[in-house]
Amino acid sequence: MLTAAIIAILVTMAMALIRAFLGPTEYDRMLAANSFGTKTVLLIALGGHAFSWHSYLDVALLYAMLNFVGTIAVMRFFQNRKLDGKQESGRAP
Amino acid sequence: MSLLIEWAGALFLLAGGFLCITGGVGLLRMPDFFSRVHAAGVTETLAAPLLLFGLMLQMEWSLELVKVLMILVFVLATNPTATQAMARATLTGGQKPLVDCTREKEGESSSNS
């Protein structure tokens, strides 16, 4: 069952990669990158148990934190850049 | 009892893999960004804890189990937050959700300005 789950994660990673390549906007690419990162965490956790690597779960935990912080940072950058372009039509928070 | 736990772990892993593939298909085939973020976010929020819980059921008692539990709690907390931040940034950035059926029939140009 571990093998089936790993194959499912790999198929989903391929789909996210296709969406990241042909996404129309940059938000689609960032969504695909975030999905790819989450799937990477799962792949490290499951694959490390299946192949009995050493200290793989620390890598998975660190990658989960890094993926979250990177997604938030890039999205905040997009938000501020778009707001700088059309400052007069922005709603008051 | 051990056999029961092993079968439950296999069931959790299969359900998690199925939800994973469902999220990938939704990410690939949905028409606009907001439906894509819905498909990816909703399925990932359930798929990652299912897979990690199935992995926990397959392991024996050790420190590694606690680490998997920490990853589970962290992913469960941050994944909806990242999804909400992405949807909010997209809405602030000027994209509109695709809600009009007649506009959908005109063509699939995603520049709905």
* Uncertain stretches of 5 or more adjacent residues of chain B: none
Mean of residue pLDDT of chain B? 85
Termini Cα gap of chain B = 60 Å
The shape of chain B, in one word, is: elongated
Q: Compute the number of structural domains of chain A.
A: 1
Count of DSSP-assigned helices of chain A: 3
Average pLDDT value of chain A?
84
Number of strands of chain A: 0
Order of helices and strands of chain B: HHHH
Oligomer: heterodimer
Number of helices of chain B: 4
Helix percent of chain A reads over 70%
- Helix/strand order of chain A, N-terminal first: HHH
Give the helix/strand layout.
The complex is a heterodimer of chains A (93) and B (113).
Chain A: H1 2-22, H2 26-51, H3 56-85
Helix pairs in contact in A: 1-2, 2-3
Chain B: H1 2-29, H2 33-58, H3 63-92, H4 101-106
Describe the structure.
The complex is a heterodimer of chains A (93) and B (113). Chain A is 83% helix and 0% strand. Chain A contains 3 helices and no strands. Chain A has one domain (2-85). Chain A has helices spanning 2-22, 26-51, 56-85. Chain A has 93 residues and is mainly alpha-helical. In chain A, 32% of the residues are buried. Chain B is mainly alpha-helical and 113 residues long. Chain B has one domain (2-94). Helices cover 80% and strands 0% of the residues of chain B. Chain B contains 4 helices and no strands.
In short:
With 93 residues, chain A is mainly α. Helices cover 83% and strands 0% of the residues of chain A. Chain A has one domain (2-85).
Provide the descriptors you would attach to this structure in a database record.
heterodimer; A: 93 residues; mainly alpha; 3 helices; 83% helix; flat; disordered C terminus; B: 113 residues; 80% helix
